[in-house]
Amino acid sequence: MTDPAPHSAQPMSPVRIDGPWTHRDVAANGARFHIAEMGDGPLVLLLHGFPEFWWSWRHQLVALADAGFRAVAMDLRGVGGSDRTPRGYDPANLALDITGVVRSLGEPDAALVGHDLGGYLAWTAAVMRPKLVRRLVVSSMPHPRRWRSAMLSDFKQTAAGSYIWGFQRPWLPERQLVADDGAMVGRLIRDWSGPRLTEFPDDAVVDTYRRAMCIPSTAHCAIEPYRWMIRSMLRPDGIQFNRRMKRPVRVPTLHLHGSLDPVTRTRSAAGSGEYVEAPYRWRLFDGLGHFPHEEDPVAFSTELVNWLKDPEPDR
Q1: How far apart (Å, rounded) are the C-alpha atoms in residues 102 and 18?
Q2: Is pTM beyond 0.90 here?
Q3: How much is the average pLDDT of 21-44?
């Protein structure tokens, strides 16, 4: 499948990449957020993961718009074209960024679609601001309570998430991410993708993510949420957050995962349905890794659109 934005054209900005979408900034939760949007209809807000930015959803923006949705991909705080604030990278505040963007777009609610860290924040937003979340779609990320439990008690998941433990060191991880023009970003994306022969990730795609990470302060801001997730585990704010996340998700939820994800084990993600008191659908993509929405965008987008259009998603 060809990318909606041709790689041959060098964009004026590393993150405001040309395509059939429109770029603009919106204000929410005391900061400015860059979004790319396309289409008209019910709002679907797309939340990227690490080490990416809004552009990871380039295929889904087109598919959702074609299916009759207003598709919006936002850059999370500190990444891409959004503000790099000195603080505010705990999940509760990042979730308020997301629901604040929904309000700033003038919509009563949104279907949230989150990958990796974006999925962690989508789970959080659905618990904290349930009236603003119409439906929930999470890819490659367990419920936050499942994630915490797996990281602490499952040796294989602890090993798979070793990069997160490495992020706890001061300054060195930021330097490693941007060294040699972001070479580490390319290694992570290639290592985390499934072995199936697909067009993802080709050199042009990897170069796009490397350039975005090398924007000043991005590496530090991209790592800060993971520092909070680990360092807060025994602190009052982390314990309070974990307790808060006991509240069930009460909106229909689609949970997507690559069967060969080397970062988030299937076993870690699969138990997340216990936190959902609504229709919950689990879908495992055979042969895909950590980036199913990019490794097989047609299969992912088809599953996503069909589920969003289903008036009564089954449990």
Answers
A1: 23
A2: yes
A3: 98
